[in-house]
UniProtKB/TrEMBL annotation:
GO BP term, pick one: carbohydrate metabolic process
GO molecular function: beta-N-acetylhexosaminidase activity
Short name of any one Pfam family annotated for the protein: Glyco_hydro_20
Record's protein name: beta-N-acetylhexosaminidase
Lineage of origin: Eukaryota, Fungi, Dikarya, Basidiomycota, Agaricomycotina
Key word Metal-binding present: no
Record EC number: 3.2.1.52
Signal peptide coordinates: 1-19
Keywords: Hydrolase, Signal
PANTHER family: BETA-N-ACETYLHEXOSAMINIDASE, PUTATIVE (AFU_ORTHOLOGUE AFUA_2G00640)-RELATED
Domain Glycoside hydrolase family 20 catalytic: 173-500
Top-rank lineage group of the source organism: Eukaryota
Length: 687
């Protein structure tokens, strides 16, 4: 190869290393390439193999699985322990600790972070050296993204330019919050979200685990107990707080939650659990009505003698579940006229939780109009709005640690919100140019219009940022996968901005660069398949059956994500030979389809969405189901009329709103025992 061509390739490849999500801090290119072929091996430094929690060896095992996922190499050798000199003439990734470049491996406030890492790449050896094991883990994410982008650029096997670099996040807290109190999720889905977010170096999962669906016509009337409430931690039946859980089938046992924490931790993410009191507490007052403020069932009367002991008993039962060093007690939107009582409560809970478990607490920033009391500066305050809420620069001036969750930049809501207040996904234009000076957003930016409400990137009391995904409209507004569709790109954008900042690093991603990279990395993100991808090329035929004569028929695809076209011709049985309405026609991991009223069911929430169409019995009807990320509709007998599956949402008891539903294809089981009709020309195509 001509040296000029090699030089150009190296420059382009070096840019490839920086141009990831999130972008890498520093990299200096050398003069050749590290080739990633099927002979690659992983060696963990024997000196540090058992260091950390998770250990370096544990991270390495997951890393090996992820390499197999992004390369397709199924015969990669098992992880070994040894020394750097153990690497032979085959390509080797060496994981170790001891990174110490204090000038580069810091947060923007200058503090050294265990999440930093160094990497040195030679022809045969790719060394990742973390400050702590978590730093080495983030280094493996960088390696994987390099491999994915190299393959996408046409290199087979993947090639990575030699050289050396350093990388560390700008902020300590880079998290996402999911409202699981108003919407039920299985732990398997939440685990997959952790794994996906980890690929973009997000390190916290804030879990808003108790809440209710707000409807004032119910809340302030005699039927307040009919409002949907969620409290997701299910204590054992002999626990004194067992009666607190409203629906046992929509709660997690300690074993289930522990397994979820372990999965997230094994991918570098810490779960921060939130139990919201003294407001948003309808689950508690349904259990013990005597604890509420008269006339406002969602607010606890914290001056009533039994209230705070009851709240402490809840934490006593659940604190042993949580492995995080911090928890959130919520503490937002309480009665402003009771500010002194509220502040006393927060400080009491801070002292109690710290004293009994050693954990710190966080609260949502809220108005505390007291001239005599103040919240302890031990408490981290999570800012979320300005009108009537906290003013973060003032809080930091007073010595409070602050996390930025400002709703203008960082709020999403499931499918829709009041007057469409929040976007479907985070606003990319706002994140890249939403600061008052026209530059991009970063955790130090709290206001898009008032620079006096923003701070510098090196403010030592600015801990970082958490984006929020709310579910104000409950289970019937979205399926779990629809929540992922809203989060997928948002998490990647957020990962870039909270790791690399904005207009700070020369290597930071431009918006068009992010838009180019995201689809590639989203499709390759290892360890989960939230896209419900098939591995087939776009527009491919997933399966086709001319006739299905024996039920049930199992396929090789548990679930297929949109876009797709699912077509079939079906002859429903006559009324005298009808199938049971409970018999599904198609079943998948994420959806079930019933012929009666052309109904989709979400198997996690058991909610059904019917089209309101009953097909003619003893007559074949051709059906085409088309799905995108935003809707699902049917075409019958070749008609061009689109019949959309929808849900009708009660918006705070003020009006109803129809929203489109998107379903993954129920592609795993065709038919079921008891189906008495006929089914032909069953076809599933991508696109």
């Amino acid at each position: 190869m001509h040296w000029r061509n090699l030089s150009l390739l190296l420059v382009l490849a070096a840019r490839q290393i920086s141009a990831q999500i999130p972008s890498v801090k520093f990299f200096t290119v050398s003069s050749s390439f590290f080739i990633v072929d099927s002979s690659i091996q992983i060696i963990v430094d024997s000196e540090y193999a058992d260091s950390g929690s998770p250990t370096l060896s544990s991270f390495a095992q997951t890393f090996r699985d992820d390499i197999i996922s992004v390369t397709g190499f199924s015969n990669i050798s098992s992880v070994q322990t040894g020394s750097e000199t153990s690497s032979s003439e085959i390509p080797t990734v060496f994981l170790t600790l001891g990174a110490s470049d204090s000038s580069n491996l810091t947060l923007f406030n200058g503090q050294l972070t265990g999440e930093g890492y160094e990497f040195v790449i030679t022809d045969k050896l790719y060394t990742i050296k973390g400050v702590e094991t978590i730093g080495a883990w983030w280094g493996t994410r960088t390696f994987l993204q390099q491999v994915v982008l190299s393959i996408t650029n046409g290199s087979n096997p993947a090639t990575i330019p030699t050289g050396e670099g350093t990388d560390s996040p700008g902020w300590e807290v880079r998290g996402f919050m999911l409202d699981v109190g108003r919407h039920w999720f299985e732990t398997s889905f939440l685990a997959d979200l952790c794994i996906y977010a980890s690929f973009f170096k997000i390190q916290e999962f804030h879990m808003h685990a108790s809440d209710y669906i707000y409807d004032p016509s119910f809340l302030y009337g005699v039927d307040w107990r009919d409002l949907y409430t969620g409290f997701r931690f299910q204590p054992p039946s002999d626990s004194p707080i067992f009666g607190l859980v409203p629906e046992l089938n929509e709660s997690w046992t300690q074993d289930e939650f522990t397994a979820l924490q372990t999965t997230c931790s094994n991918h570098g993410i810490t779960i921060i659990p939130e139990i919201d009191t003294p407001a948003h507490s309808l689950a508690i007052t349904k259990w013990k009505p005597e604890l509420m403020i008269n006339g406002t069932p969602d607010l606890l009367n914290i001056t009533y003698p039994e209230t705070i002991p009851t709240i402490k008993s809840i934490w006593d039962a659940l604190l042993p579940w949580f492995t995080s060093s911090e928890v959130s007690i919520g503490a937002d939107e309480y009665d402003e006229s009771l500010a002194d009582d509220y502040i006393t409560f927060v400080n009491d809970m801070d002292g109690y939780i710290s004293g009994t478990s050693g954990k710190s607490i966080r609260i949502w920033g809220t108005l505390e109009p007291s001239t005599t009391e103040s919240i302890s500066t031990n408490v981290t305050i999570q800012h979320w709005w300005f009108p009537g809420g906290s003013i973060p620069v003032q809080l930091m001036d007073q010595g409070y640690s602050v996390i930025n969750s400002d709703q203008v930049f960082l709020y999403l809501d499931g499918k829709t919100s009041d007057q469409d207040q929040f976007p479907w996904e985070l606003n990319a234009d706002l994140l890249w140019s939403g600061a008052p000076d026209g530059k991009g957003w970063a955790p130090n930016i709290f206001s898009a219009t008032d620079p006096t409400n923003n701070t510098s990137i090196d403010n030592p009391l600015l801990r970082g940022s958490i984006m929020a995904m709310w579910n104000d409209w409950g289970n019937n507004a979205t399926t779990p996968l629809e929540i992922y569709y809203q989060l997928a790109k948002s998490l990647a954008m957020f990962g870039e901005k909270t790791w690399a900042g904005s207009d700070v690093r020369d290597t930071g991603l431009a918006q068009d660069e992010f838009e180019r990279l995201f689809p590639i990395l989203n499709a390759a993100a290892p360890g989960q398949n939230l896209n419900r991808a098939t591995g087939l090329p776009p527009s491919a035929q997933v399966f086709h059956y001319d006739t299905v004569s024996t039920f049930p028929l199992q396929t090789s695809f548990e679930s297929v994500g949109p876009p797709y076209t699912f077509s079939f011709s079906v002859k429903p049985p006559s009324n005298g030979n009808s199938s049971s309405p409970a018999v599904p026609l198609f079943t998948g991991l994420d959806s079930i389809f019933y012929l009666e009223s052309m109904t989709f069911e979400d198997p996690s929430t058991k909610i059904r969405y019917d089209l309101g169409v009953d097909l003619v019995s003893d007559t074949f009807t051709s059906v085409e189901i088309h799905a995108t990320l935003n809707h699902t509709y049917a075409l019958l007998n070749g008609s061009s009329e689109k019949l959309f599956w929808m849900s009708n949402l009660d918006i705070w008891g003020e009006y109803m709103k129809l929203v489109n539903m998107s379903f993954a294809a129920p592609s795993y089981i065709i038919g079921a025992d008891g189906f008495a009709g006929e089914l032909v020309n069953v076809s599933l195509k991508l696109g």
